[in-house]
Design a protein that fits this description.
The chain is mainly alpha-helical and about 425 residues long. The protein folds into three domains: about 5-65; about 70-260 and about 375-400, Citrate Synthase, domain 1; about 265-370, Cytochrome p450-Terp, domain 2 (Orthogonal Bundle), CATH 1.10.230.10. The protein is built from 19 helices and six strands. The strands form two sheets. The chain has a three-stranded antiparallel β-sheet with strand order 1-2-3. Strand 5 (about 65-70) and strand 6 (about 70) form a beta hairpin. The chain is globular and about 75 Å long. The protein binds s-citryldethia Coenzyme A. S-citryldethia Coenzyme A (SDX) binds near residues 264, 303, 306 and 361.
Amino acid sequence: MNETVEMIIDGKPLVLPTVTGSEGEVGIDISSLRNKTGCITLDPAYGNTGACESAVTFIDGELGILRYRGYDIAELAEKSTFIETSYLIIYGELPTRAQLTEFSNLLSENQMLHEGMRFHFEGFPSTAHPMAILSSMINAASSYHPNIISKREERFPYHAARLISQVRTIAAFSYRKAHGLPAIYPKSNLKYTANFLHMMFSLPNEDCELKPEIVKALDLIFLLHADHEQNCSTSTVRMVASSKANLFASAAAGVCALWGPLHGGANQAVLEMLEEIHQEGDDGSKFLNEVKNKIGNRKLMGFGHRVYKNFDPRAVIIKNQCDKVLAQLHKSDPLLDIAKKLEEIALNDDYFISRKLYPNVDFYSGIIMRAIGIPLDMFTVMFAIGRMPGWIANYKEVMEDPDGRIARPRQIYTGPTQRSYAALETR
Ligand code: SDX
């Protein structure tokens, strides 16, 4: 495409520069539009609007491509680990052995919460949703380390490691609190995901069994969720970071955005949907008819995506893992059978085909999490743990942008034009 585009606004020609990305996608740079024409663009939900240039993740929604820093998700899923991939996403390169060891040591050194945090946990009711606890405790954690605010840049590697490490500890503690169980502290001899499962399921007098297949399955879930370009929660993190808020405040905002059932909350909503279908003895046909006829504004949760108009490559990987993990655990799950039936019907139904609706990352992930014992209300927390390196990498990009400015979108005002105050007795 040319380096400029030309348009006619109010009968006058306007030439705007274009920006071409490393994978050939083209953006029209409209940063001078309002100064030159007095107009702004309008793009609710930003379906056509690029908010930034980023070097972290590339998605091609038409071809179903997902790459972290140029590495294809299927290759990383097969050959890498969540922590190695986290380093790649944050720092841009696969780590050397020395760099990986240093990063892992930083995670271990920063895995304990300040003991004062226990009082915050005590204050939550047992009914508190773990996502509510997670977002508030991430901000609370920063209160015990003032240099998270005062020494943002120079201490970034420590703050990033602390956040990745402690989000796991906070998540496990929130689960234990909600279930009236004593907190289990991390162990220095366990790697990231094994340590999380230890904190979730061990007892003070007995360590839980850490089956390698369960540890690997959860590590893969984390890896597959590690970043996804400018999704709702990552864009939220960048928006908050643009005001020069600290890393923990930006990540806490990301947790809140992720919680919604249209975003990260979908993995919990999928299982609730499958359970409802199962309870009704429906094979999925009745439910899909309600979706297609928009009865009760029902959606096939775990299906559809703003960017993927083809298969979400993560969903393909997770679906294949479902059968493998269930077989390894000698388990079967009727909800998996229902999910497969729903997919089979939907992929052959014009309602879904015409709208290019395919399974996304959330459609099958809950089946695996359920099989490895993760409770339903912790599903979106697993998504948040996985997405943390992506949020941190995007925060880092915002902080390192020499031309960075506070994000402040415009609007088209549709309210009342000017009018005078009316005295109370005249209203
Ligand atoms: C994630 O952005 C990311 O990258 C997100 C994510 C990440 O890694 O960060 O990939 C993670 O959030 C995945 C998505 C999880 N959410 C769900 O599974 C919830 C169910 N999906 C939908 O709500 C929806 O597909 C969205 C929210 C994912 C995308 O919504 P869009 O792009 O705004 O699409 P839309 O709502 O405009 O839908 C277009 C049409 C509409 O029908 P019509 O008005 O044309 O008749 O498709 C229909 C929608 O009603 N539609 C669905 C549907 N999704 C869209 N109909 C039934 N079931 C669905 N799931």
